[in-house]
# Entry
Amino acid sequence: MMIEHICAEPDIYRIEVPLPNNPLRYLNSYVVRGRDRFLVIDTGFNRPECREALFTGLDSLRVDLARTDLFLTHLHADHTGLVGDFARAGSRIFMHHDDYQYLVDSTDGSTWRYAEEKFMVEGMPPQDIKNQFSNQARKYSPDPSFTVQTVHDGERILLAGTEFQVIHTPGHTKGLCCLYIPDKEIIFTSDHILFDITPNIQYWYHMPDALERYLQSLDKVYDLPVRLALPGHRKGDTSIASRIDALRRHHASRLDEVLQAAAAHPGATAFELAPCLSWSMRGRSWAEFPPTQKWFAMGETLAHIEYLLHHGQLIRREIDGTYRYYTV
Ligand SMILES: [Zn+2]
Ligand SMILES: [Zn+2]
# Structure
């Protein structure tokens, strides 16, 4: 178990929660110890390895869950999986309404069905869609029967004796929120800004042009005074602006790759375009991608295609129930 003491004022710790068999490797769960209350930011998956690491860490920091505020930065299961343990122990739970609603809507499987139908018309073979039922996000999801206090953009909230500002940064998910401590210029960036991996930007049925929203959300925090940035995965940094520049360049070159692939293969489906993009999968070819990685790659390709459609640089035609793409 790994705990890092990040700073004393406020008293912030990072618990490293392992994510077995996941390329993200671990989740950073942050703990702020106040005089009367505690704050925990994000939890790890709903699986024993995460539960063990998180609660051993919280015990050693003498965190009392009955006097804890749990802030869930966004709906993803690696951040929310263990919320039930907190709810049962009497913690207060904070989250943006949009992501809470998505979790509630997911209980009957409808959000997954939307995605599967979408991927089907985008040319993904039914067998690949079936294979992806092992997806960790689905398997280790939280039980969404918990109540939350919803937060909104710009809101200031006192958690563990420290004043935080909520910054709503849609893109990675519709309801993702960063937490910012204005006095200290510390920002918890969750999966909005990661430093040694690129946040995954997906197609979402309930958020048109997620990539455009994401780029706008990068602009939104670009000029924020930051001395310490604490991300949801991997290591943080002492500034965010240069990382934002790099993320913008990444998406610009991604958009370019999609356009070039569409020009080279007129009438290709999204599923046929996806392997033309460069994926950092340790030298593996597209055919060797595990189903879950193919699923994420499809979602990411679709987010870039949607941006190009929206900006008039690609055209889509429906042929026999399948979408095919052409450059303008
Ligand atoms: Zn995420
Ligand atoms: Zn994450």
Observations:
- The chain has a mean pLDDT of 94.
- The longest helix spans residues 241-264.
- The two ends are 54 Å apart (CA to CA).
